[in-house]
Design a protein that fits this description.
Elements: H1 2-13, H2 21-37, H3 42-45, E1 48-52, E2 55-62, H4 65-77, E3 83-90
Parallel strand pairs: 2-3
Antiparallel strand pairs: 1-2
């Protein structure tokens, strides 16, 4: 009976569960980076983007609090992202 249950679970979740985690992380990272690039803020283009599962971590420095919020909000809008870890710093000398 447990074999049938496992097969049914696998069959039901096959479309929802990624088959290749590394490939899916790479694709999610690519989508996040592309979306950040499309915002027209040069400071967002140099950010480090790491993906583990559906968690995106942003690292780097931005010029303003606005740019930081923009980066975080952009990441949250990308399909597949469930959580964003904020490791961004704001350059105090650049804010105006």
């Amino acid at each position: 009976m447990s074999q049938n249950t496992s097969a049914a679970v696998s069959e039901r979740t096959q479309h929802a569960v990624p088959t290749n985690g590394a490939e899916d992380r790479t694709e999610l990272r690519r989508r996040v980076v592309r979306y950040l690039d499309q915002q027209g803020q040069t400071t967002l283009r140099g950010l480090e983007v790491d993906v583990v599962g559906q968690i995106v971590t942003l690292r780097g420095r931005v010029r303003s609090f606005y740019a930081k919020q923009l980066a975080l909000n952009c990441c949250q809008r990308v399909a597949g992202v469930q959580q964003v870890v904020d490791l961004l710093g704001v350059d105090a000398n650049s804010s105006r």
